[in-house]
Amino acid sequence: MKIQNLCSYNSIVCQYLAEMRDVEIQKDRMRFRKNMQRIGEIMAYEISKTLPYTDRTTQTPLGTSVVPVPSTQPVLATILRAGLPLHQGMLEIFDNAENAFISAYRAYEPDGSFTIQFEHISTPPLENKIVILSDPMLATGASMVLAYNALLKNGTPAHLHIATIIASKEGVEYLTLRIKNNNTTLWVAAIDDELTSKSYIVPGLGDAGDLAYGNKK
Predict the structure, then answer these.
(1) Where are the chain's structural domains?
(2) Measured distance CA(56)–CA(47) in Å, rounded
(3) Percentages helix, strand, coil for the chain, rounded to the nearest 5?
(4) Model confidence band, residue 185 (pLDDT cutoffs 50, 70, 90)
(5) Cβ of 1: how many Cβ atoms within 10 Å?
(6) Segment 46-59, tens digit of pLDDT
(7) 2-52+67-213 domain in CATH 3.40.50.2020?
(8) Hey, which bits of 96-158 come out as E strands?
(9) Staple partner for 44: which of 90, 122, 134, 164, CB 3.0–4.6 Å?
(10) CA 215 → CA 1, 199, 206, 210, distances in Å?
């Protein structure tokens, strides 16, 4: 699996990420969602460079112009609910893309342990298509692998792009061991060192879904 870390070099993504981590700026949910969307747009732009292109001849008022355009649109998939702003940012770039939505959540036990529960998936056929699977936080990696396996029931993609804002080293290793498809690229804005006993990334930013949409039960 190839890894593309957008904050391994100077990029405006780093500013948006810094604001998302900031406990004071986090109080503004609209800005939190907007920064997530902005990062989604930039990731989609970077991914667009890897797509196959074909030349299109366009008639202008004064002549014709030959312009390379993507020969295919990716399928944009995300895990509800936290992934929605990141997904929307990508949809702003790939505005004619097909979309897939996966419902998965952490089911906690009284002792604080949890399992990832899968509930529902809505997706077009995926065979030989380019798929971008997004979720803002890659903690243990379990929900991402669960989503990936659920998508495979609808066809094997020609290439899978996994897009996340913050990943833990443990989560990246988990993905690498379990998604062995060579046609897979992980796009990330930061890889943090620590994962707590409750599977929160440190320094991370907290619960992305709660920060974007409010606390849940």
Answers:
(1) 2-52+67-213
(2) 20
(3) 30, 35, 35
(4) very high
(5) 16
(6) 999 999 999 999 99
(7) yes
(8) 98-108, 114-122, 130-134, 137-138
(9) 90
(10) 34, 18, 12, 5
